[in-house]
Amino acid sequence: MKVGVVVFPGSNCDRDMYHVLSDVFDLDAQYYWHEKGLPKNIDAVVLPGGFSYGDRLRAGVIAAHSPIIKDVQKMAKQGIPILGVCNGFQILVEAGLLPGVLLKNESLNFMCEWTNLIVENNTTPFTNQFKLHDKIPIPIANGEGRYYVDDDTLKELKKKNQIVFRYSEVVNGSTDRIAGVCNEDGNVVGMMPHPERAVESEINPIDNKPSSLIFESLLTKTGVHN
Amino acid sequence: MSLESQELSDLKSKIGREPTSTELQIVAAEWSEHCSYKSSKKHLKMLPMTGPLVIKEKGYDSGVLDVGDGYVVTAHIESHNHPSAVEPYGGAATGVGGVIRDILSAGTRPIAIFDGLRFGNIEKDQQARWLFKNAVTGIADYGNCLGIPTIGGEVEFDECYQNYALVDVAAVGFGKKENLIKNHAKKGDLVILLGGSTGRDGIGGSQFASDSLESEDRSAVQIPDPFIEKLIIEAILEARNEKLIHAMKDLGGGGLSCAISETADALDIGIEMDVEKVHTRESDMHPDEIMVSESQERMLIVTSKIKLKKLQIICKKFHIGCSVIGHVKFDNYMHIKKGKKTFANLPTDVVANATLLDLPSKKPVYLDTIEKEKKLKPITDYSKLMMKFLASPNIASKIWVYGQYDHEVGIRTVTKPGRDASVLRLDNGKFLSAKIDGNPKHCYINPREGAIGCFEEACRNVVCTGAKPIGMLDHLQFGSPKDPEIFWTFLESLKGLTDFAKFFKIPCVGGKVSLYNETPAGPIKPTPVIGVLGLIDKKPSIPQKISDNDCLVIIGDTKDELGGSEYFEYVHKFIGGKCPVVNFEDSKKNMFSVLKVINDSLVKSAHDCSKGGLAVAVSEMCMTNQIGCKVSLEKVPGEKLSVDRILFSESHSRYLLALERKNLKKLESILKKNNVSFKEIGEFGGYRIQFTNSAKSIIDLRVDKAQKTWLNSLRDLVLHG
């Protein structure tokens, strides 16, 4: 199975994501530079974290206008699994593929710490191996990570089952403790925490199995595992 | 600022004519203390710089260590003190940028950043708080954007840094040995300036940093742009992979003047360059300004005409500037032109090698009486004192600082910040541990023993992760070398470090000297900061969680050494007494015994005893593991001392080990065999930190309460004063 890792100027988790996809989960991962297009035969796309364009103007907003985003939008419509992590999530939001916005953390500081996620939707291509309300120990690392939607949108999100992950406790002041959401079809998922930093036992001080299920879910969805 | 009259006449006699204004600017930058090390260079040679793992190449800005299997680790340390004292955000950020480019220059990818920060008394001084807060943000914004984890460091506050700041940044790189840049130049090679544009920032920065800080010369401070730095890193590593680089040097202090003259001198070549070819931020820059601008995020590259095309394609991909500014000649001159007109034409060895000084030194008078102790006020409530101590800025957890740094990116961080030292995994299955340590309070009282202590503390921290020290970085920060008393303290520290390095066969792989750290209020205390790199061959077995009934063993003697301790200075407001002295033989025995028992998987956790002494070290173990501990002070090995001295002495070579009771016998037999002074002094369990002396309760704290205070007090102090 082929997974595209999209690289923007300033992406800095691209190599980590590539390592996890290819070395830990044995997938055929490829880098795609933002100025190029994505090939048609790709099975999933990941937008990794980092500081695309140095977070200028607003995190993710410049990258959302990259040529490659047109292909990402096309694939989103086709139902291909797309995952945005951290800056990747910010880009998906800015590209209009996911609802909401990401604001500065309540502390106004960059925050790097381990936290816990609760799985709220286990039907997406990245969560189908979880039981509802499973807990995932995982690190966050962001300055603009506070997910925000207004009350009406929040109602919509709940109704359409678009909240994928919540923090187990208040971390950065995000609306309804939301840490990750999906589009209405469920194939596009964005999350602020970094699953690629949590899947190897060597660097995960708590438990690496839960976050591994994010990638196992993708393998199952695309028929690599069943 | 310009050359001193003696230097000017030196220059005239060396070149046999009057220098042009551009030449004066170039030479003043390059002969500044910051770039030339003219006061210290003669003496720095005493440090051992070779060893079986050290790889030496000409023109490297960082040290290179062979870590086996075809891989190398690079390391360097720098400071950005003057700029950070004026503009903490930009000063600290560009400090990170500079040292990262030194790592990149060798052809290795930067994989970790460490920062040592020092400010005035933040409890009293608003400005110190402002400097601290903004320096931390500067480092965070820069390092986080680059995607290089900041995994360690230290923060200290002392009155001697009032209106000033010490911002030290160390960086570590990693790469394949075969990818190291072997700096060389061939006939017809081109000289290329790659990266950000040259502007009017950082003009005269190196001279600014080579004098005491009296004015806030903002134009001497550089402006950071981490985004461009990130693009440069990726572009250069791509170019390295395609073997497009013959020689490379980062532009730091002294800007182009320094990079051109030092590259030419190191490679034994001449360089002719045209300032009109430099991509500038402003159109009307004078050649003098272009030559000494310290605009950041620039690299000088030497390569061939054929390889240039490929390099340009890479630079275009990343949208970074790539200007051919000159070419290599073989006349050993740096020839600076604007179009056809010559502005400077100097022999590179003259520019790159300032006349070295042999400054006089004299033992400071204050040292004659410093060891004399004053009578201390008796402590009535040690528990209350301990809570205050845990909340004090120097003892409190630095989580508010490292929590703002991305310390996970790169997915190498096995042991996270907040422990003795962080540990990174390397691609060859080995692990790298690193730590930087300083202690100006000790160094003020005894510059030699204090410096040795910093070195040993950094070693202890690395050893506590199970790593064997393999290399050292020294950063020597002092006041004006022209003051013989200050210069004496510099020499004493250097001699101490040299003796320890030689005894332990730990080579010095890189370093920096920063002098003139003074404000109108006076010089800083001697502040050597020592970085130690350690290597672990297999996945570290520690730290493991400490549980009920695990025992606590101390290694090393506790002595009457409280001079410069936090207890004397923070609690009793007394500067003086006898500073801790490292006994080399004991140090070695203890160090290797700790490594042995960690490698034999006998211990769950190891922690060094340092700032705040035994009381703080035990509390830290308890708070980190959220478990109580009962310690019997009368069992602590060493001199017979009063309770407060046992609790708070900062004697070196001491380690605390937590282990399962079933392993105690084995541990004891190893320690006995190695003739190490040790004792089981307590047992973990429950939820209270308790110190008793012959059954009498001395300290009794709840772990959760202590932990809350320890974790939050620094943040509260910064945010709410």
UniProtKB/TrEMBL annotation, chain A:
<dbReference type="GO" id="GO:0004359">
    <property type="term" value="F:glutaminase activity"/>
</dbReference>
<dbReference type="GO" id="GO:0005737">
    <property type="term" value="C:cytoplasm"/>
</dbReference>
<comment type="pathway">
    <text>Purine metabolism; IMP biosynthesis via de novo pathway; 5-amino-1-(5-phospho-D-ribosyl)imidazole from N(2)-formyl-N(1)-(5-phospho-D-ribosyl)glycinamide: step 1/2.</text>
</comment>
<comment type="subunit">
    <text>Part of the FGAM synthase complex composed of 1 PurL, 1 PurQ and 2 PurS subunits.</text>
</comment>
<feature type="active site" description="Nucleophile">
    <location>
        <position position="86"/>
    </location>
</feature>
<dbReference type="InterPro" id="IPR010075">
    <property type="entry name" value="PRibForGlyAmidine_synth_PurQ"/>
</dbReference>
<feature type="active site">
    <location>
        <position position="194"/>
    </location>
</feature>
<protein>
    <recommendedName>
        <fullName>Phosphoribosylformylglycinamidine synthase subunit PurQ</fullName>
        <ecNumber>6.3.5.3</ecNumber>
        <ecNumber>3.5.1.2</ecNumber>
    </recommendedName>
</protein>
<keyword id="KW-0547">Nucleotide-binding</keyword>
<keyword id="KW-0658">Purine biosynthesis</keyword>
<comment type="function">
    <text>Part of the phosphoribosylformylglycinamidine synthase complex involved in the purines biosynthetic pathway. Catalyzes the ATP-dependent conversion of formylglycinamide ribonucleotide (FGAR) and glutamine to yield formylglycinamidine ribonucleotide (FGAM) and glutamate. The FGAM synthase complex is composed of three subunits. PurQ produces an ammonia molecule by converting glutamine to glutamate. PurL transfers the ammonia molecule to FGAR to form FGAM in an ATP-dependent manner.</text>
</comment>
<keyword id="KW-0963">Cytoplasm</keyword>
<dbReference type="InterPro" id="IPR029062">
    <property type="entry name" value="Class_I_gatase-like"/>
</dbReference>
<dbReference type="GO" id="GO:0005524">
    <property type="term" value="F:ATP binding"/>
</dbReference>
<keyword id="KW-0315">Glutamine amidotransferase</keyword>
<keyword id="KW-0378">Hydrolase</keyword>
<keyword id="KW-0436">Ligase</keyword>
<dbReference type="GO" id="GO:0006189">
    <property type="term" value="P:'de novo' IMP biosynthetic process"/>
</dbReference>
<dbReference type="Pfam" id="PF13507">
    <property type="entry name" value="GATase_5"/>
</dbReference>
<dbReference type="GO" id="GO:0004642">
    <property type="term" value="F:phosphoribosylformylglycinamidine synthase activity"/>
</dbReference>
<keyword id="KW-0067">ATP-binding</keyword>
<feature type="active site">
    <location>
        <position position="196"/>
    </location>
</feature>
From TrEMBL, chain B:
<dbReference type="InterPro" id="IPR036921">
    <property type="entry name" value="PurM-like_N_sf"/>
</dbReference>
<comment type="pathway">
    <text>Purine metabolism; IMP biosynthesis via de novo pathway; 5-amino-1-(5-phospho-D-ribosyl)imidazole from N(2)-formyl-N(1)-(5-phospho-D-ribosyl)glycinamide: step 1/2.</text>
</comment>
<dbReference type="Pfam" id="PF18072">
    <property type="entry name" value="FGAR-AT_linker"/>
</dbReference>
<feature type="active site">
    <location>
        <position position="34"/>
    </location>
</feature>
<feature type="binding site">
    <location>
        <position position="511"/>
    </location>
    <ligand>
        <name>ATP</name>
    </ligand>
</feature>
<dbReference type="InterPro" id="IPR036676">
    <property type="entry name" value="PurM-like_C_sf"/>
</dbReference>
<feature type="domain" description="PurM-like C-terminal">
    <location>
        <begin position="186"/>
        <end position="329"/>
    </location>
</feature>
<comment type="similarity">
    <text>Belongs to the FGAMS family.</text>
</comment>
<dbReference type="GO" id="GO:0005737">
    <property type="term" value="C:cytoplasm"/>
</dbReference>
<keyword id="KW-0436">Ligase</keyword>
<protein>
    <recommendedName>
        <fullName>Phosphoribosylformylglycinamidine synthase subunit PurL</fullName>
        <ecNumber>6.3.5.3</ecNumber>
    </recommendedName>
</protein>
<dbReference type="InterPro" id="IPR010074">
    <property type="entry name" value="PRibForGlyAmidine_synth_PurL"/>
</dbReference>
<feature type="domain" description="PurM-like N-terminal">
    <location>
        <begin position="60"/>
        <end position="173"/>
    </location>
</feature>
<comment type="function">
    <text>Part of the phosphoribosylformylglycinamidine synthase complex involved in the purines biosynthetic pathway. Catalyzes the ATP-dependent conversion of formylglycinamide ribonucleotide (FGAR) and glutamine to yield formylglycinamidine ribonucleotide (FGAM) and glutamate. The FGAM synthase complex is composed of three subunits. PurQ produces an ammonia molecule by converting glutamine to glutamate. PurL transfers the ammonia molecule to FGAR to form FGAM in an ATP-dependent manner.</text>
</comment>
<feature type="binding site">
    <location>
        <position position="474"/>
    </location>
    <ligand>
        <name>ATP</name>
    </ligand>
</feature>
<dbReference type="GO" id="GO:0004642">
    <property type="term" value="F:phosphoribosylformylglycinamidine synthase activity"/>
</dbReference>
<dbReference type="GO" id="GO:0006189">
    <property type="term" value="P:'de novo' IMP biosynthetic process"/>
</dbReference>
<feature type="binding site">
    <location>
        <position position="78"/>
    </location>
    <ligand>
        <name>Mg(2+) 1</name>
    </ligand>
</feature>
<feature type="binding site">
    <location>
        <position position="222"/>
    </location>
    <ligand>
        <name>substrate</name>
    </ligand>
</feature>
<dbReference type="GO" id="GO:0005524">
    <property type="term" value="F:ATP binding"/>
</dbReference>
<feature type="binding site">
    <location>
        <begin position="294"/>
        <end position="296"/>
    </location>
    <ligand>
        <name>substrate</name>
    </ligand>
</feature>
<feature type="domain" description="PurM-like N-terminal">
    <location>
        <begin position="418"/>
        <end position="536"/>
    </location>
</feature>
